[in-house]
Amino acid sequence: MNKRTCTALATVVVAALALGTAGCSAQKSRSGGHGPAGAGAGAVIGGTPQRGGTLTVLSGQDFTHLDPARNWVMSDMDFGTRLLYRTLVTYQAGPGAEGGRLVPDLATDLGTPANGARTWTFHLKEGVKYEDGTPVTAQDIKYNVERSFSPDLPGGADYAARYLAGAEGYQGPAQGKHLDSIKTPDDHTIVFELRKPFAEFPNATVMPTFAPVPKSQDKGPRYDNRPFSSGPYRIESYARGKKLVLVRNEHWDAKTDQVRKAYPDKLVVLMGLKPNEIDDRMIAAQGADASAVPWYALRPESAAKVLPKAEVRGRMLSESTNCTDMVQMHTGRAPFDQVKVRQAVQYALDRDTILTASGGPAFNDLSTAYMPATLFGGKQPDTLKIPAGGDVAKAKELLKEAGKPDGFSTRMTVSVGDKGRAEAIQESLAKAGIKVTIETVDPSAFYATIGDTKNRTDMVYTGWCPDYPSGSTFLPFVFDGRYIKEKGNSGNHSLFRDQAVMKRMDEIAAMTDAKQANAAWQELDGQILAKAPAVPVLVRRWPLVLGTNIAGAYGQTSFGGQLDYASVGLKDPSKARD
Amino acid sequence: MILYIGRRLLGVIGVLIAIAAVTFTIFYVLPSDPAAAACGKSCSAERLAAIRAHMGLDQPLWRQFGDFVTGIFTGRTMGSGQYTLHCHFPCLGYSYDNSEPVWNLLMDRLPVSASLALGAAVLWLLLGLTAGVVAALRKDTLTDRVLMVGAVAAASLPVYFTSMMLIYGLIRTAGLLPYPEYVALSRDPLHWASNLLLPWTALAILYAAMYARQSRSSMIETMAEPYIRTARAKGLPRRTVVVKHGLRAGMTPILTIFGMDLGGLLAGAVITESIFGLPGIGRLFYGALAGGDQPVIMGVTLLAAAFIVIANLVVDLLYAVIDPRVRY
Amino acid sequence: MSVHQPALAAATVGASPWRLARRELGRRASVRLSLVVVALFAVMAAGAPLLTRLSGWGPDEFDKSAVDPYLGGQPVGPLGGISAEHWLGVEPVTGRDLFARTVHGAQVSLLIALTATAMVVIAGTAAGIAAGYFGGRVDAVLSRLMDLTMSFPSLIFMIAMMSVAKDVNRILLMTAVIGLFGWPGVARIVRGQTLSLKHREYVDAARVGGSGPWRILTRDILPGVSGPVIAYTTLVIPGMIATEAALSYLGVGVRPPTPSWGQMIAESVSFYDTDPMYFVIPSSCLFLTVLAFTLLGDALRDVLDPRSGRQ
């Protein structure tokens, strides 16, 4: 067995067993035993926390937005909805699959559909208060949904815009204009009128768009710097890019809240730290850092400092982000309009190398299907059976059949953070004769750049995460040709337009039996894969090394594997008071 | 003298407006779209247009620039609909990312960058001048040679290399210092200094060499002047001769370099701040670049230019103080 | 009238200091060492493709067998994977050959620095001579332009320009951007020198002799300013190399997979404690080159332009 296949095999084994011991002696003898890399899916670190103390969060950057109307980044949504504001419905606080379960939050239940799932009614709990003691009302939720339409407050989730009746052209509550499709018959009832049936509407009401904002507190764009709390903590101080301090909201009542445990007395987020400094501090966990958690995932570069140490590994969470990284090809343009050329890319890609560039099997799982494993009940199928290291000969053969025996040149846009992965793609495609030029773009400009379908490059490297565990939040977004927009295109970056696929999507969307729909999505995933509009590459994990004094910590599957801030706390609060 | 200062100040404003115009044109002509960046991952064409209008990006370039410049002197009101934002004098616009007036952000970060620059400046002056004077007094000895080659070698080290070595040696391995976390001078002077010690050292190592070399050659030259010989012949102590006569006469070129260096650093040492995680203007700038936050990029560029121009002005005025021969 | 006279004068003014300079320089150990280092890196840069053919690995070739995916891609073997196959070890994660990347990085770094220097020197000399010789309005305009350029916060401006510009040749752009801010330094020196040469007898003689301004500039003034310009040029180069490295370090430099020293250092900073060799190799290359050019420039200045250091 040569080294190459050994690595490949070990990788597959690890991916399949979700961190089982890699059965490869050559690997082991070379660099010691590599057992499970930290606590994987479903693990809780540190037992049950004690109430009190200060939890410190070490972060490289500021939040994108904490204003609930604008907050649409997985980790930020976790932080905002778990600590600062409550939404109509939210995710259960629990490890593994439990974290995907919906539970009522501000609402008394998961909503009542009527009119063929076109009308949804929610009733609000009594006794929920803001940080100043005033009660949360249905009108405040309506107000925040409305303000998410304002061009002054861009960035938020667009479910409201996509589904609410009469939302076209609406520009927010300026000059007293309101949405008639949201009705508030009394302070504790809110009714949404949708323009098409949407059976999964409660899933959308988890978004911070459906958190309350009282009109009197709204300061427009500056609300981002001081959201008004309806959750267990309120903002004591917030110096943008430097430090955020949260203290208890005395008016929050634990009896109205079955999700948030609110163990620490105080949370301090230190921002602007160097990523490698954060990694080093978390690995060392000395002094005050024992009661700290990192905000961002461990960098692959630090893996060598974590993996050989059992003690550190034992403090590491590594939940899947549930997002599939893909190489998407512009199916509307030569040469990628030929399916053979796209298949050649499928075969040429050396996913092993990309995996290594991404931190190795401890931090990622290879992907053999588009939808992440959670949408397949835990494990992705491998319908194409392409070796993880690629098959250059087969790729060349496909290129020859496509009339491109000498390969071709193309360009690929990637976000700055994906540069390493992109270089691995570049290198492996070069072996099959496909010369790729990499265009790196800042994360902030990335979606705008690849969303410009006219001027973008033929290849893009991007991922998709289902908003909630249903195939309907994955395949239609990524492969439905009717969602393609000339500018601001999102999701379907292969510009894939296939009549059969779209017809099937409509059929599945109309299914009322969730199980049947699920199976149908899974089957469709394989059918699209055979047409190769995109190559699934890997699913990243979200590795977090926690301080030694941290308890109740697990990765929340619905928030991309980020630490669940609803339940994290300290083992011994007396060690972390300031 | 007053007339001269007035004329120079007018010049300063002219230079700053010219720099603003150049920066403005470059950033608004080059293909980058802050509206699209703000709009997020799913953005319809109508929404994009609305956001662009709100940001004022639908106006012609000259108009945007005009508004910007007037805003600096008179303040301006921005935004649309119910969310009007007042941006007071001196208005450099509103940051898209931070939802704060750029001026406030700059003033918030300035103490950090200024602490870094001034502390480092004191350190490098001390190191550089001492090394230079010692080398000059022991001209052509081994001490001279070692000092000078050492200075050049230290200056040739990339600042990120020195910084990483300092972090590794003093923080990671020896545990002598904490990871730098900026503490305001007014809050705790001791912590302020201990947290900034490493960044100061890293910068001082880079800059000191220049001063060592400059002061050495100035000293050698002035010590050979007749008036120094006279002073010595009068029986003045060596120390007085060196410091009062020798150094002072050699100050002019050093002051010129110093003005340029300090002016350039006050508005943020991008690399040093990012390596040590100091929340100064350099980091603000770097973050704004990644976020496409054009008003902040503009603001930092202008502030930095202002510091350079003003430093030059101050240096020119100081010539008159140091060197009695200079008159305006 | 003899047309040869000024040329002859210039030649004698030029020739003997040159010979003197060479003798003076040859005496210094630092100069000899610096020359060796500069020559070494120059050969490395120029012969990069040849050298990598010799070592067997290209700068962009991944070597999966040289890194351990289970350790976050650490190189296999001691000292960052230094072996007979990989002379300077490999890059972690990708397994790319460090020797190949270092020599190709030298090529990119030196190419950018030298081209930018050439730009700066040519533009600066032209502007300086024009301002000094013609004086009056030309001088006023050029001097204002110099002041304006020097007031630009150059590094901040360069970073900003590099980060917004897309779809262009990065190496060309970087050269242009770095060169843009350097010329006033040369121009000022040349202007001062020109002013002092303008009314020397031999220049006056040439003027009386009916030489046109172009002829006087190229024949009489240019040789006169060349000494300080050469010294200054050598001192500009290390600054250019450092600037290129700083820009690449900040992630706005060359496009992947092109290596440059700054880019290599930037990537290797993350590994400075797990794979120190990876960090040390490009850093020492950068250090040595900058040091060698600075020492060389210092010596040249002392010899060719004895007054400039102490005005």
UniProtKB/TrEMBL annotation, chain A:
It holds the Pfam family SBP_bac_5. It comes from the Bacteria. Residues 32-45 have a biased composition (Gly residues). InterPro entries: Peptide/Ni-bd, SBP_5, SBP_5_dom. Keywords: Signal. The keyword Signal applies. Residues 1-26 form the signal peptide. Residues 27-46 are annotated as: Disordered. CDD domains: PBP2_clavulanate_OppA2 (cd08506). This is ABC transporter substrate-binding protein.
TrEMBL record, chain B:
It comes from the Bacteria. Residues 110-319 form the ABC transmembrane type-1 domain. Keywords: Cell membrane, Membrane, Transmembrane, Transmembrane helix, Transport. It is found in: Cell membrane. The keyword Transport applies. The keyword Chaperone does not apply. This is ABC transporter permease.
Automatic annotation (TrEMBL), chain C:
The keyword Nucleotidyltransferase does not apply. Its main location: membrane. InterPro entries: BP-dependent_transpt_permease, MetI-like, MetI-like_sf. It is a multi-pass membrane protein. Signal peptide: none annotated. CDD domains: TM_PBP2. The chain crosses the membrane at residues 29-51, 108-133, 145-165, 171-190, 229-252, 277-300. Keywords: Cell membrane, Membrane, Transmembrane, Transmembrane helix, Transport. Residues 106-297 form the ABC transmembrane type-1 domain. PANTHER family: D,D-DIPEPTIDE TRANSPORT SYSTEM PERMEASE PROTEIN DDPC-RELATED, OLIGOPEPTIDE TRANSPORT SYSTEM PERMEASE PROTEIN APPC. Belongs to the binding-protein-dependent transport system permease family. This is ABC transporter permease. It comes from Streptomyces orinoci.
